[in-house]
Amino acid sequence: PVGALSYSPVPLTEAVVEGYGQTVLVTGMILGFLRDLVTGGVSPRSVGSILMIGEASGQAAAAGLDSFLSFMALFSVNLAILNLLPIPVLDGGHLAFLVIEGVRGKALSFETKMRWSQVGFVIIMGIMVLALSNDFLRVLGF
Q1: Alpha carbons 135 and 129: distance in angstroms, whole number
Q2: pLDDT tier for residue 33 given thresholds of 50, 70 and 90
Q3: Other C-beta atoms lying within 10 Å of the C-beta of residue 135
Q4: Do residues 26 and 74 make contact, with C-beta atoms less than 8 angstroms apart?
Q5: DSSP string across 73-141
Q6: Rounded CA gap, 60 and 79, in Å?
Q7: Backbone angles phi, psi at 29, to 5 degrees
Q8: Which of 79, 85, 106, 109 has its CA at a distance of 20 to 30 angstroms from the CA of residue 56?
């Protein structure tokens, strides 16, 4: 049938190389989306939350196991990239603190870390409100 997939066994090293290549490709796509989101090339309305994730995973599952596993891999890479953004309260924010401390040659004060973490928390909450609002507006047909 048209569009049918076939599978053939490949050596482990080839599978790892292919997996790495796909991860690099997906990472580039996600970073491009984030860049476009920040620069206005993509509408903030395209950001979704758990409702959109559930809908997309359901569609992927309905398309078959291979589509579902591909979606799960994409989702995992997406979460990893988002977690590494330099926003305090995320792992990327903690890495940013470490880099700043390394450049300065001394630790940031507890108060400074707390203030920036509060800013990061507000940013994350804002993103969550935007994503949930977009999902509810989509459900309501707007």
Answers
A1: 10
A2: very high
A3: 19
A4: yes
A5: HHHHHHHHHHHTSS-TTSHHHHHHHHHHHHHHTSPPPHHHHHHHHHHHHHHHHHHHHHHHHHHHHHHTT
A6: 18
A7: -65, -45
A8: 85
Closest CA to 81 of 27, 22, 20: 27
CA separation, residue 4 to residues 1, 15, 21, 67, 70 (Å): 6, 20, 23, 12, 16
Tokens of 20: 């790495």
Residues 6+ apart with CB under 8 A from 77: 23, 26, 27, 30
Q: What is the dihedral of CA 73, 25, 41, 45, to 10 degrees?
A: -10
Give, in order, the Cα–Cα distances in Å from 33 to each of 6, 43, 85, 110, 123: 31, 10, 14, 34, 18
- Residue in this structure with the two tokens 């206005």, named with its chain if needed: 40
Q: Which of 17, 133, 29, 130 is nearest to 81 (CA)?
A: 29
